[in-house]
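To close the section, here is one more complete example, presented without commentary so you can practise reading it yourself. The ligand is biotinyl-5-AMP.
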Amino acid sequence: MNADRLQEGLRTKLFGRIILFLREVGSTNDLAKELAAYGAVEGTVVVAETQTAGRGRLGRGWASPKGGLWFSVVLRPELKPAEAVKLVFVAGLAVVEVLRELYGVRVETKWPNDVLVKGRKVCGILSEMNTTDGKVNFVVLGIGVNANFLENAFPEELKANATSLESELGRKVKLDALFRTLLERLENLYELFIREGFNLILEEWKKYAGFLGCQVEVTSLTEKMSGLALDVDQEGALVLRLEGGTITRFFVGYFSASEVKDNR
Ligand code: BT5
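Output:
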């Protein structure tokens, strides 16, 4: 990845006007949250070639070898927390649309934060929110795309469930171009979400949701449940019909920066 060329021809108003590029960082989300806490403007982006402590949700790790696209965007939406949690769908939709358009891969969305190819994860999204008294100070949206490396770069335990663009396409992709296109789409969909609300985003996102109508297993903080995935509703909740016929909903959680630390 060429740091000087990341902004070349970038057609955004706000996203990526400030880009911090690092060869190596613990986690782009952590650094972006730190910058946001110091007042970084909306659209500030942190990109890294590798992450030594890449993070998933709930304290899980994220393998981030060289060749992947690992970046985080600082957002300052004027939304209530219950609305801002839906940003994870905005990011998922942006990734799915761009990967389909640029490379013709049949990627799908999986509730709430995954992008899959043939059932294997090619991208993960980590949305973290910082709030005070029910007001959103900032959201950091982290996106990790397994791009230019093969399966042997994954730790053994991930190989069955993870894939990369290079594995799927049989060639490398241009990371700079992927980054710019993603950032542009993300900004467009973010604006749409702020202007028009969640409906359009959700309807589009659901078009790519291969899991709907399938038997799925959901792990929440407290329990594991399996059932038929009926829908994702207006609140971003997964609607599941359990074996006995009971309908239950799972919500997308969110963590403020401090809560994430406390949970470890
Ligand atoms: C996610 O969490 O999928 C969110 C991943 C977000 C990564 C980006 S990279 C830029 C930014 N900076 C960060 O530190 N994070 C964000 P979750 O749904 O909790 O999934 C995590 C699980 O996915 C792990 O427990 C593994 O099983 C699996 N996994 C780890 N690394 C992977 C990879 N590179 N590809 C596919 N699966 C992976």
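Once you have examined the tokens, check your reading against these statements. The first helix runs from residue 28 to 37. The chain has two domains: 3-207, 215-257.
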